[in-house]
Inverse folding.
């Protein structure tokens, strides 16, 4: 079976109740659920949560919540892989071994069904352990600067002070939307940011981390602009 797992714990600190806070007309998590369902790829779209209210919102928007996430997987330090592994083991115990498995973040309102479809195709055609969304940095990371303890500026890579931007290698980063993976890769904790992963390239205007209220406002502006198009 093909499984989508949307991790959504209840203890968001910087933006309280972030996973179900209204975003452009729907609870934030509903956008991820909607993309998963619209992709028609999955035998089950599951929300992994420790929070009863999140569970009810998820079910109201079409996801299933066949288990509640245990406390030891619901603290601030739990990574994504153990949460996905817990979901995989749940279905294995039910006699339904999932593979592949797609983790879709609950705070990814820009995720699209066609991107999920592209990720699965890449996973299958490349033989990769993982396929996940990435986007390019808007500015060359080789010319990044840091602020010193004395309040001054220093380059991370001063050897590139005179290098033209167009002569520097383009860099990419995790877009924080979805992660297709083979069940065994998730269960074994195989590293994702390695040669065994295939990139699903997204344009920068459809990528926004949402960790602060400023991020949230920017994301809503971007989302509304895309809808207006």
């Amino acid at each position: 079976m093909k499984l989508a797992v949307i991790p959504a714990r209840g203890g968001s600190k910087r933006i309280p109740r972030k996973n179900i806070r209204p975003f452009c007309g729907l609870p934030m998590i509903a956008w991820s659920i909607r993309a998963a369902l619209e992709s028609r790829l999955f035998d089950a779209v599951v929300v992994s949560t420790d929070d009863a209210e999140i569970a009810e919102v998820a079910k109201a928007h079409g996801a299933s919540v066949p288990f509640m996430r245990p406390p030891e997987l619901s603290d601030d330090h739990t990574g994504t892989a153990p949460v996905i592994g817990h979901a995989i083991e749940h279905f294995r115990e039910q006699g339904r071994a999932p593979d592949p498995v797609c983790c879709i973040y609950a705070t990814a309102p820009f995720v699209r069904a066609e991107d999920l479809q592209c990720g699965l195709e890449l996973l299958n055609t490349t033989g990769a352990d993982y396929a996940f969304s990435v986007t390019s940095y808007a500015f060359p990371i080789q010319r990044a600067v840091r602020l010193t303890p004395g309040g001054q500026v220093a380059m991370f890579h001063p050897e590139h002070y005179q290098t033209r931007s167009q002569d520097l290698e383009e860099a990419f980063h995790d877009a924080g939307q979805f992660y297709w993976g083979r069940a065994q890769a998730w269960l074994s904790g195989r590293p994702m940011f390695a040669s065994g992963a295939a990139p699903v390239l997204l344009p920068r205007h459809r990528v926004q981390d949402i960790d602060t209220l400023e991020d949230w406002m920017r994301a809503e502006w971007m989302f509304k602009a895309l809808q207006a198009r």
Remarks:
- Helices lie at 28-39, 52-60, 80-93, 113-126, 183-188, 213-228.
- The beta strands are 3-7, 22-23, 26-27, 44-48, 101-104, 130-136, 145-147, 153-155, 172-181, 197-201.
- Residues 105 and 177 are 6 Å apart (CA to CA).
- The two ends are 36 Å apart (CA to CA).
